[in-house]
Amino acid sequence: MKLQKSSPTEMALELRALCLSRNTTIEMIKDRGYTTTQEVQSLESFHERYPFALTKRSTLNFVCVDVDRPVGIHFGDDEKMGKKGFEGLLSQYEKDNIFHLILILPQFPSPTVMSMISLNPKFNVEIFLVEEMVFNKTKHSWVPPHRILSREEKENVLKALKLGPGDLPRILKSDVIARYYGAKRGDVMEIVRRSRTAGESIYYRIVVER
């Protein structure tokens, strides 16, 4: 990041974006049921705790826990992550036995890195952009509550509806809400829609790649 070319206003906006995106990330992992001691912060407390956030975003990193597996939350320092930086990142986390990474980046990595992610069976790497995490979209009034069913719940729902998984309507794995909850292919998401006239309606969607 070339701060010498940034105006005070631009720096203030970027600091705000980092604060809000980290807050949304914390909300996201809690909504997934992960365990963390991190809490959302006001801009003032964020600036006090992370005075070098603009020059070294990685100071915002932390580790949370999914059941008994650690998950690394990593804010990338590079404007665009390349192959060398990504390989170093994987090596760093592998030493700590962390194989699930959530990367919060200024922009998407190079095509080479995206290919490496899709072909790496050892690591589960999720990517979110800082700008898309500034606002928690699940809190929008137009977005109904979503949740991923457990395996047992999925089986019970399919049995009750007398349907196979492929008979359910689909939701893409790349859907913004599916990504927020970390949905995987084959998961079934429950969506609760509320209406003043129709009351509460429950819908189910199966997660697909495309």
Automatic annotation (TrEMBL):
A GO CC annotation given for this chain: RNA polymerase II, core complex
Pfam families xref list: RNA_pol_Rpb5_C
Keywords: DNA-directed RNA polymerase, Transcription
Keyword Transcription: yes
Segments forming domain RNA polymerase subunit H/Rpb5 C-terminal: 135-207
A Gene Ontology BP annotation from the UniProt entry: transcription elongation by RNA polymerase I
Coiled-coil features, chain-numbered ranges: none
Source superkingdom: Eukaryota
GO molecular function: DNA binding; DNA-directed RNA polymerase activity
Protein name (Swiss-Prot/TrEMBL): DNA-directed RNA polymerase I
